[in-house]
Amino acid sequence: MTAFDGWPVLAVPAGASRIFELRTYEGYSEDAVRRKIKMFHDGEFPIFKRAKIEPGVFGEVIAGDRLPRLTYMITCNNMEERDKGWAAFVADTEWKRLIADPQYANTISKISNSFLVPVPYSQV
C-alpha cells in the first residue's frame, strides 16, 4: 500500500480497550479510486474526528488482487462507540455535501469490513 498524502503515517490509538475496523473499498476503475482518495482529502478526515472515530491508516493498494482498491483502518473503544461514530459520520453536513458532489459519484464498487482486536503485546 501507498499511504495517502493527507494521512502519511500510522496513528497509534490511545487506550487499552479498543477494536479496529479494517475497510477495503474496491473501485470501478483507477480513476474512481483516485476520486475516492480525493474525497478523503477534500473533507472526510475531519469528519472522522468530529464523529469520534479515530483514523489509523489510509492507503492505496498497489499490488495484489481486487485492484484497484484502497484500504483504511479506524479504531474505537468498542462496537457501541463505533456504531455511534458512524451514525454521526453519515449525519455530518460536510459528509452530505461530499456525497452530493458529482465528482465523487460511482467511485466504489464493493466495500469489505473486518473487525480486529489487538493482542496484549500489539504495538497498535
**Biggest beta sheet attributes:** 5 strands, antiparallel
Number of helices, where a helix is a run of at least 4 consecutive DSSP H or I residues? 3
Strand order of the largest sheet: 1-3-4-2-5
In CATH, the architecture is 2-Layer Sandwich
Low-confidence runs: none
**Helix content bin:** 25-40%
| Total individual domains | 1
Q: What is the H/E order?
A: EEHEEHHE
Number of strands: 5
| Named CATH topology | Alpha-Beta Plaits
- Measured distance between first and last alpha carbons: 18 Å
Please describe the structure with a list of short key phrases separated by commas or semicolons.
single chain; 124 residues; alpha+beta; Alpha-Beta Plaits; five-stranded antiparallel beta sheet; 3 helices; 5 strands; 34% helix
Give a verbal description of the structure.
This protein is an alpha+beta fold and 124 residues long. It has a single domain, classed as Alpha-Beta Plaits (2-Layer Sandwich). It is built from three helices and five strands. It has helices at residues 30-50, 79-91, 93-100, and strands at residues 2-3, 19-27, 54-61, 69-76, 108-116. Strands 1-3-4-2-5 form a five-stranded antiparallel sheet. Strand 3 and strand 4 (69-76) form a beta hairpin. The longest helix has 21 residues, at 30-50. The mean pLDDT is 92.
